[in-house]
From TrEMBL, chains A, B:
The lineage of its organism: Bacteria, Pseudomonadati, Pseudomonadota, Betaproteobacteria, Burkholderiales. Keywords: DNA-binding, Repressor, Transcription, Transcription regulation. This is DNA-binding LacI/PurR family transcriptional regulator. It holds the Pfam family LacI. It comes from the Bacteria.
Amino acid sequence: MKAKVTAHDVARLAEVSQSAVSRAFTPGASVAPDTRERIHTAARQLGYRPNAIARSLITRRSRIIGLVMSYLENQFYPVVIEQLCQALQQDGYHVLLFISDTEDADNVLMDILQYQVDGIVMASTTLSSALANDCIDAGIPVVMFNRVAQRRTMGGYATSAVTSQNRAGGRLVGELLVSNGHRRIAWLAGAENASTSHEREAGLCDALAAADLQLHARGVGHYDFAEARRAVLALFRDPANRPDALFCANDHMAIAALETLRTELGLHVPRDVSVVGFDNVPQAAWPSFDLTTVQQNVGQMVDATRTLLFEQIGGQVLARGVTVPCVLVERGTVGARSVEYQTHKTSETT
Amino acid sequence: MKAKVTAHDVARLAEVSQSAVSRAFTPGASVAPDTRERIHTAARQLGYRPNAIARSLITRRSRIIGLVMSYLENQFYPVVIEQLCQALQQDGYHVLLFISDTEDADNVLMDILQYQVDGIVMASTTLSSALANDCIDAGIPVVMFNRVAQRRTMGGYATSAVTSQNRAGGRLVGELLVSNGHRRIAWLAGAENASTSHEREAGLCDALAAADLQLHARGVGHYDFAEARRAVLALFRDPANRPDALFCANDHMAIAALETLRTELGLHVPRDVSVVGFDNVPQAAWPSFDLTTVQQNVGQMVDATRTLLFEQIGGQVLARGVTVPCVLVERGTVGARSVEYQTHKTSETT
DNA sequence: CTGAAAGCGCTTACAG
DNA sequence: CTGAAAGCGCTTACAG
């Protein structure tokens, strides 16, 4: 292991000042073409690479973005990490990844702030917005990803957020289900404090209201596989009063529902019950699930995140929310209910 | 957004020198208990947090580990990220995440080195080991995760690696298949240049050889869902010469195989063909797959990675490989083949 | 136990 | 276009 080579070493070899070396590695700095050439040659010879830490100290820009997540079991998040990371790399930024359970969020915050990140992306539906507010106080741009922070009027600041048009997405599902003749539609919520879950449910209820219907039943799965299973079991406990459709707040829970309905309850999807998810994770397309769902456009969400981040890093104080359209992906888990069948089923339990 | 508060500001308020402030935040430094107290109070009042960037510059330790991955579709890797990240956080380290296609690996390397990471973990089966060697030249500890680097005798350095006992794992599967009466066992390789795939195949062949058998057929899926599907289609093209068992180099491909066998080939698993994977990703336990597989112990692999990393950061030059035991997880995708059935099938094609 | 001072490796006005 | 110099915010011998 060789000793670290610094700009001084290169300067000596290239017979220029250390400042010149710095300029030769700063895009747009004024250096004569041939000195730049000489410096680069010397640098290559010595294996010199500018020290990004030292640069950060003087420029007060680390070009590091903190990405906070709480769990990766839901495949939606690995997809987000991958795309966000690659996009930011292309922008010349890098990602410091923090995995945080909701409890140790405060320690995580401390760490992030010490590392002088230029911005923070919070891509987890279960993270406290108190955390976000602390960051704003520290003057670091924060954008919530797939989550809306609680409004905070004090001080005039708010947190930027990028989300899908969750309510519209929920409505699309509601309309699909209604138009296919479903009348006993159940909702499986994510976390009760998650804006995504709320919005999607509200959209579903919009569509039901437009058809003079209301929610047939409601469970809570906390965006968790095992909890979703339990909730589904409860929702379908009474055979005489079974939902004819189940809309789950995300695909992860929808897949849990599918598994539970088939394996433990012996029900056929979509014949006995239709199932719809939200996200369009890779597994939703697997033949075993063939899940009808609402696709969140991760690419657009990532673009919006970058825009928001750079806007604020560039000094624009205003936080704002960006909302990205999502589209219904119809696959095989929604069936048609005939009117006869509907009437029959309804009279059976009335 | 308030101006950044520095150690000087705290010093002024607490009426001590800036050095004292630094000591108050350095565990083990000699400060009088009451001055430390006064300093901490002042710091809290001002919202001071030590600047980790400045500290890194002087200590020449960034406490950042670079984690390089190429794709996250295979659920094994999100699990690794999550556990590695959390473990390193507890060790007081943080993770700079790099997503790299195999092509832009060089740029990625540049970036990592500029950020003065204390070490690098390469947790991707498809990453070039030339990259790793460059890092070693730069004096940065590298540990390969779930992959073995090409040996490099020159200079006496080699790359540390933590892997599962892949060959033993492959052998376990071979023995299971043989003892259940399978005689026409096919192998679906990952990437041809991946040590994991090689080792697992070698283990399988060990078991086959012990029973005087050899591979019935062989495909290559490049650890990719779509490619695995194509390979399976080719492997099962001839109904008269079909494998009675398929061992896939990882679960991701095994699930692709399961889907293809059932949906496109109309075969029943395990009645018509047994399927085994490797990794034990979360989905392997889902009822739809109920996949028999070999579990890689991520916890132990992560622990070994930390040990290796800290060993080398601490100045021990020696690179070494650590190998972690893996265990067979028997689920529902392996059936029994009776001798009659075997004989019948074999004679049918001979 | 404490402070003054040097220095980590850069960037960036400021002169020339 | 180029160099000398100051300074980013810390840590850490070195004296006292």
